[in-house]
From TrEMBL:
The keyword Lipid biosynthesis does not apply. The lineage of its organism: Bacteria, Bacillati, Actinomycetota, Actinomycetes, Kitasatosporales. Residues 7-34, 242-259 have a biased composition (Low complexity). Residues 47-211 form the Exonuclease domain. SUPFAM superfamilies: BRCT domain, Ribonuclease H-like. Keywords: Exonuclease, Hydrolase, Nuclease. This is DNA polymerase III subunit epsilon. Residues 232-241 have a biased composition (Gly residues). It comes from Streptomyces alboflavus. GO terms for biological process: DNA replication. Residues 1-41, 230-282 are annotated as: Disordered. Gene3D superfamilies: BRCT domain (3.40.50.10190), Ribonuclease H-like superfamily/Ribonuclease H (3.30.420.10). It comes from the Bacteria. Pfam families: BRCT, RNase_T. InterPro entries: BRCT_dom, BRCT_dom_sf, DnaQ, Ribonucl_H, RNaseH-like_sf, RNaseH_sf.
Length: 372
């Protein structure tokens, strides 16, 4: 079991309350990894950052309130670990889950204050997390708010890895993965202990993958290059603004950080679906566009722009979908899988951004019956 030197008790980690300072502890030097006589896959990463964050909630506007990182070498041995509280400057959310009250977070550093140290822990490593898309999304948004870029280029989800290994788990909860490898959880939903548990479970998973020649399920991470906490501009009748989408881009200059954001349930697209997009032709108002995977512009901001241009934002892919936008067309997500099955056109974010600059008007006037 990994030694956790920031833990005051052998049974449960202590949640810092009076001292909000960050903590970093070097781990003892690991002995030669068992099975090291087996050649290690040269394509495997040279280091990992096992991460867990606790947050005020699950939405795009929620904030990180604590973070922990275990840095591992190429074979999964611990190099050191680090933990910090973070003042979210708002209500801490479900205290009954994470135990972090407003009083405990009052003197904690802001994310901007720990961003550099956090980045040092993440740099040049693959981010490893349980349900990694969530942890990565929260981290990327915090860095974007701080007008910085998270130094992460790839992530690995331990849920995906357990599926690749065919582990006989009753479900994909962290406690089930921990129990499979005999790892004892001391305090669930405490970032430091969850990161420790995951690091302990990841090491044998990594070795099993190396032994069996399993390709690691690595996914690209695209740091956010644009972010807004403001609300989207909506047309006078509650629908999207029509006309050239170039004008809709300028609308985002009116965003104000922290301003009230309306419900994300958008009004129905007023234009009929003209069918699938064809390569070499412009997008047309009413087309159904779906998004999958990471985007360099915040997903909801990108969807807002498409909506304002008169496009229908589809939450799934069907035979009626006009176009799928993804930066990872070879991923095995349900949307990319369905797009391949239905023959739905697929383009990346950059190409979509170019198409958004000149969206053709709908052939049928708004309000005319047509396929939606």
């Amino acid at each position: 079991m990994l030694e956790d030197r920031t833990t005051a008790s052998p049974t449960a980690p202590t949640v810092p309350s009076a001292t909000p300072a960050t903590h970093a502890t070097p781990a003892p030097t690991a002995a030669t990894a068992p099975g090291s006589e087996t050649p290690w896959p040269t394509a495997y990463p040279s280091g990992y950052a096992v991460v867990d964050v606790e947050t005020t909630g699950l939405s795009r506007d929620d904030r990180i309130i604590s973070a922990a990182v275990y840095r591992l070498d190429a074979r999964g041995e611990v190099e050191d670990h680090w933990y910090t509280l973070v003042n979210p400057q708002r209500d801490p959310g479900p205290v009954w889950i994470h135990g972090l009250t407003s009083d405990k977070l009052a003197d904690a550093p802001l994310f901007a204050d720990i961003a550099e140290e956090f980045a040092t822990r993440l740099a040049d490593r693959v981010l490893v997390a349980h349900n990694a898309v969530f942890d990565w999304s929260m981290i990327a948004r915090e860095y974007a708010r701080a007008e910085r870029t998270a130094p992460v280029r790839q992530r690995l989800c331990t849920i995906a890895l357990s599926k690749e290994l065919g582990l006989p788990l009753p479900n994909h909860k962290l406690e089930s993965l921990a129990a499979h490898f005999g790892v004892v959880q001391r305090q669930a939903h405490h970032a430091l202990d969850d990161a420790r548990v995951l690091a302990e479970a990841f090491r044998p998973s990594l070795r099993a993958a190396a032994s069996d020649g399993v390709r690691l399920p690595l996914l690209e991470c695209r740091p956010l290059t644009e972010w807004s906490d403001g609300g989207a501009r909506i047309g006078r009748q509650g629908g999207p603004a029509t006309g050239s989408s170039t004008s809709s881009f300028s609308a985002y200059s009116s965003y104000q950080s922290g301003s009230w954001r309306p419900s994300r349930k958008r009004p129905a697209c007023p234009f009929p679906n003209p069918g699938r997009w064809e390569d070499g032709k412009p997008l047309k108002q009413g087309m159904r566009v779906a998004f999958s995977g990471d985007t360099s512009v915040d997903r909801e901001l990108l969807e807002d722009r498409a909506f304002e241009a008169g496009l229908h934002i589809a939450t799934s892919v069907s035979r009626l979908t006009s176009l799928l936008v993804t930066n990872d067309p070879d991923s095995g997500t349900s949307k990319t899988t369905k797009a391949r099955a239905y023959g739905t056109p697929v383009i990346d974010e950059a190409a979509f951004g170019q198409l958004l600059q000149d969206v053709a008007p709908a052939e049928t006037p708004a309000g005319t019956p047509g396929e939606r």
